[in-house]
Design brief:
Layout (H helix, E strand, L loop, with lengths): L5 E9 L2 E9 L6 E5 L8 E4 L7 E6 L2 E6 L5 E4 L2 H15 L5 E5 L2 E5 L9 E4 L5 E5 L6 E4 L10 E3 L2 E4 L8 E6 L1 E2 L2 E3 L2 E3 L3 E5 L6 E2 L2 E3 L2 E3 L4 E5 L3 E2 L2 E3 L2 E3 L5 E5 L5 E3 L2 E3 L12 E5 L5 E3 L2 E3 L6 E3 L5 E3 L2 E3 L6 E8 L2 E3 L2 E3 L4 E9 L2 E3 L2 E3 L3 E14 L2 E3 L5 E13 L2 E3 L6 E3 L5 E3 L2 E3 L4 E5 L7 E3 L2 E3 L3 E5 L5 E3 L2 E3 L3 E5 L5 E3 L7 E9 L4 E3 L8 E6 L4 E7 L3 E7 L9 E8 L3
Parallel strand pairs: 5-8, 8-10, 9-11, 10-13, 11-14, 12-15, 13-17, 14-18, 15-19, 16-20, 17-21, 18-22, 19-23, 20-24, 21-25, 22-26, 23-27, 25-28, 26-29, 27-30, 28-31, 29-32, 30-33, 31-34, 32-35, 33-36, 34-37, 35-38, 36-39, 37-40, 38-41, 39-42, 40-42, 41-43, 42-44, 43-45, 44-46, 44-47, 45-48, 46-49, ...
Antiparallel strand pairs: 1-2, 3-4, 5-6, 6-7, 57-62, 58-61, 59-62, 60-61
Amino acid sequence: MKNKPFSNIFKIQHAGILFVAILLISTSLVSSTIMKFGSDGDGVTWSSTYGDTADYVVYKEGSTYYSKNSSTGQIQSSSNATTIIQNCIDAIETENNGLGGMIFIREGNYSIDYNIVPTANITIIGVGKGSVLYASNNVNIIYYQGGVFPDDRGFHVDKICFKSSQSTHTSAAGIKLDRVHHFSITECWFENLFEGIYLFANVGDVDNGWIKGNHFYKIFNHCIRGTSSCEENVIVENIIDNYGGVRGISYSGSHSTISCNTIEEVWGTGVGSGVGDGMYITGSENTVTGNTIRECGRYNLVAAGTNNVYNANIITDGHGTDRAVSFEGSGHVFSYNMIVDNDGIGMCCISGSNFTLAGNRVLNNKQGILLTTADDVIVSNNIIADSTTGVGLSGTGERVVIEGNNIRGNQLEGMYVGFQNSTICNNVISSNGAEGIQTTTAAKYLTIYDNILYDNDEGIDNYGTYSIIRGNDLRQETTKFTEHGNYSTIFENNGYVTENGGANTSTDDGGTITHGLSSTPTYVVCTCNESAIVAVTAKDGTDFTVSIKDHAGNAVNGVTIFWRAFYEP
């Protein structure tokens, strides 16, 4: 590796005079220069100068591997790279009284034929994609299993490339961790492995870790995998460009942050072929924010577990025809996510309760939002548009609130509802190809109020029973309201009048009065300002006819009729 000078330029201004001091420092230490991370031109650049601070420097010349003790200058050699690296780890443990140290791995291919086992507080660092630890068989390249505190304290890996020469994979991981605290894995490359990073957590927790800026390519199973005993880890700014694999990030742990990762093209060609999930979260109380997940083979995102927060993620271009975002469990919050251009349903709850879906943009998917078995869900202030159907509540569910959403431009229904004891209010539902709101025969005890519906093929089509439908603004639809059910209360809807009344002056016996209802009145109540008997003798969709007689049965004319007409669908 060539030495490279660099400049530090300091600008100092005093008393109006500008001094520019240029300090040229030429490094002659064992170090890395700026390197490209990957031959595919991904544009990631790294630089490091750790050779002068490392306890040991590992390098390769020809087919021989060497290590140099930076303090004593002693050099050891071996034909086995694993032996050289492990000897450095063991020596640091002894020389530094268990306090850890650093191993710097220079550029080269290092064939690994059994697990490298770090001790506490070891740092292994390289130059980037050029420092390759190459598994020659199905081994975990680095396998850290901490002891009892304080020996469970973590280790650190930075700028190392992990690869395998195997054409088939059964178990090998680039890095596998068990019972470790305070670790970091940063800016590494993982390629052609069974697992990338496996937070195994079998005999003890794996927690307080920092997994940042790593790149994963053609991982057979999971790129990053964490089991249920993982907690308080940060998984951030990783790039998963997998062209296959089962899952990008699979995490069953808790109280962790998964943020600003890019996951794409997890197609499901590995074990369990056909899976292909971008992110699979089954833990609890995690924060998943700012990630971009696209072009995965089955689900872009699976959200299970409890009380996780999904915020400001971009979920797009999913190829699975079933669901782009599939969620279950309880207590999740989905807010301000962009879910667009997926071949499957934008957001689908297959079972669960106590979810909140707020402020999301769900656009141009197979279907917008579908809840199949869900209780106690709030769907509010979302934009749901340009899909086959906007919102669907189908199956078993109750106590769902659909409020304040903009539902527009869908090919069929803006919303169809088959749940019970649910509320639909304050939505703007427009320009849908079928009904704005359709309730099914399974719907009962709904409250549908204060919605604005316009430019739909039909306004409200109600097959449900025992519902209250009031105060909705039905504009411009050819058919504003159709009632098929029983025992619903429908009133005060603009554009669909079910109750009206007034005073009709100078009315004669046998005269007609226009009632203004949306259909033939169920009944009409009439009185007059004279001592006469008023009865309704006929009614239709426009008028009703009155008979006005005195007590002798004689016709009375020219009186004022006070009337109230009611239509009960």
